[in-house]
């Protein structure tokens, strides 16, 4: 049984009274997604709109893959450690506001299975996987594997393997609808925290930094500024162990998102020290301070799964 239940429309409406909408880049989704009553609020963003079906996409994040496409249409973006201490992204989309193209798409990892188990049977689009992991993904009861379909295509203007993209329309068909994964939202910043206009997180061979511009956080990766923005940033410190699905090229990281640990929330130009707790794979993740949920600003959240020190 899931420990975090969906936010009711009435409670969410009171929570978001007086929400001001900021300007975002052109591929951002509308604050009133297509379809469904606007009296409902997304459990993934806290913004108005009925819950759509969930599509997660694994996205390349080395220099040759940048800038990526479609990230500012995502509800959430996770940054995850992969081989060599590099990072890969997972963008989570609501099917009600998909961009026309997403990518470059890359392969799945064991981390994805545990991370996505808190969602309700989402679709996961990826370019491939380790030979023993691929059948596990295809047979998984926790997600729908989307790979090798006609939705995927190559961009001849980029070098392989950093040039595979997809048209996401229809890939969430049959997936579960967005449900509560533990996030809470409020337009007003919570009490406490400290002024902080910048924040940073790192993996062995990857760096992320976030700069508050008065409305959102501008994302930089490995020292290079990107076109991507976030309304919230969560730096979630996790245990990283070796995956059971090995590679001939070396250590394959498996970031554990079930358990508990420390985290930092960046919102509205302030920094909040948090604890995170996820009792089981099908439970949502609670982000708390002194035992109380700490609300995010309604909008897009980047979550960096940073290795615990």
Topology:
Elements (H helix, E strand, L loop, with lengths): L8 H7 L38 E6 L16 E6 L5 E8 L15 H7 L6 E3 L7 H7 L4 E3 L5 E3 L9 E3 L27 E2 L2 E6 L2 E7 L4 E5 L2 E7 L1 E7 L1 E3 L10 E3 L3 E9 L2 E9 L7 E4 L2 E2 L7 E7 L2
Parallel strand pairs: 1-4, 2-20, 4-5, 13-20
Antiparallel strand pairs: 1-3, 2-3, 6-7, 8-17, 9-10, 10-11, 11-12, 13-16, 14-15, 16-17, 17-18, 18-19
Organism: Actinacidiphila polyblastidii
Keywords: Signal
Protein name: DUF3048 domain-containing protein
- List the total number of helices: 3
Ranges where pLDDT stays below 50 over 5 or more residues in a row are: 1-39
CATH secondary-structure class = Alpha Beta
Helix content percent band: under 10%
Order of helices and strands: HEEEHEHEEEEEEEEEEEEEEEE
| Largest sheet features | 12 strands, mixed
Number of domains: 1
The geometry reads as: globular
* Beta-strand residue percentage: 25-35%
CATH architecture level-2 label:
3-Layer(bba) Sandwich
In the CATH hierarchy, what is the superfamily?
A: YerB-like
Integer average pLDDT: 88
Over the alpha carbons, how many angstroms does the gyration radius reach?
18 Å
Spatial gap, N to C terminus: 32 Å
Derived from helix and strand composition plus strand pairing, the structural class reads mainly beta
Could you say what the CATH topology is called? Answer: YerB-like fold
Give the total of beta strands: 20
């Amino acid at each position: 049984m899931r420990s975090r239940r969906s936010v009711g429309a009435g409670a969410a409406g009171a929570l978001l009274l007086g929400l001001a909408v900021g300007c975002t880049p052109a591929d951002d989704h509308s604050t009133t997604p297509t379809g469904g009553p606007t009296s409902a609020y997304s459990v993934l963003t806290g913004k108005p709109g009925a819950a759509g079906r969930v599509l997660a996409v694994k996205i390349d994040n080395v220099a040759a893959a940048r800038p990526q496409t479609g990230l500012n249409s995502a509800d959430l973006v996770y940054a995850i450690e992969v081989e060599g201490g590099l990072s890969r992204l997972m963008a989570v989309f609501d099917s009600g506001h998909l961009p026309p193209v997403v990518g470059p798409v890359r392969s799945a990892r064991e981390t994805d299975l545990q991370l996505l188990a808190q969602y309700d049977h989402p679709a996961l689009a990826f370019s491939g996987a380790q030979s023993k992991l691929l059948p596990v993904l295809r047979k998984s009861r926790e997600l729908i594997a989307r790979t090798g379909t006609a939705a995927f295509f190559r961009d001849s203007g980029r070098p392989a393997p950093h040039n595979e993209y997809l048209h996401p329309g229809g890939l969430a068909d049959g997936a579960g609808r967005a449900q509560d994964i533990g996030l809470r939202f409020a337009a007003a910043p919570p009490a406490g925290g400290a002024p902080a206009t910048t924040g940073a997180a790192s993996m062995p061979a990857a760096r992320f930094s976030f700069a508050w511009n008065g409305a959102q956080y501008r994302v930089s990766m490995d020292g290079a500024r990107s076109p991507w923005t976030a309304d919230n940033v969560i730096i979630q410190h996790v245990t990283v162990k070796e995956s059971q699905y090995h590679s001939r090229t070396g250590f394959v990281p498996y970031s554990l998102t079930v358990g508990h640990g420390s985290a930092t929330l960046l919102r509205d130009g302030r920094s909040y020290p948090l604890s995170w707790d996820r009792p089981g794979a099908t439970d949502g993740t609670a982000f708390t301070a002194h035992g109380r949920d700490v609300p995010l600003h309604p909008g897009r959240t980047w979550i960096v799964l940073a290795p615990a020190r």
